[in-house]
């Protein structure tokens, strides 16, 4: 697999989601958690999404309870929290595992194609970010401490690569 377009996931409301619909778009994939010290990044992710959505960016949030048990609620609880507290409008998915034998295949792919802290492939904490280009390929991985606003230049450079024909399809 040379792109993320082969994957599927389930949105937080139970709707199936095919990553094929991301063709021609830039994506920022993030494993999230509602009660983590980094949960204020939801606001920054929403700002980045809002600012660049019309240019072809989509932010994809994947709640995960693997780190510090910071995402214990149901999918309904998570959605309510994210929308009421942070006005999140970008797609949120059903809770997933990002490490271990039950890890979602998308995260296995992302880990296989990049390394994190200390060159380790495993995801170490909530709010690890993966930037995907408009061809569905991994551009880079960013640590939880990396604030979404600091990614604006690299996001813009990827958005600048989208052709007008691709953008018209978005």
TrEMBL record:
Keywords: Oxidoreductase, Peroxidase
PROSITE patterns attached to this UniProt entry: GLUTATHIONE_PEROXID_2, GLUTATHIONE_PEROXID_3
Chain ranges passing through the membrane: none
Biological processes per GO annotation: cellular response to oxidative stress
Keyword Oxidoreductase: yes
Active site: 36
Keyword GTP-binding: no
Superkingdom: Bacteria
Coiled coil: none
GO molecular function, one term: peroxidase activity
Family named by the database record: Belongs to the glutathione peroxidase family.
Protein name: Glutathione peroxidase
Native source species: Pseudoalteromonas ruthenica
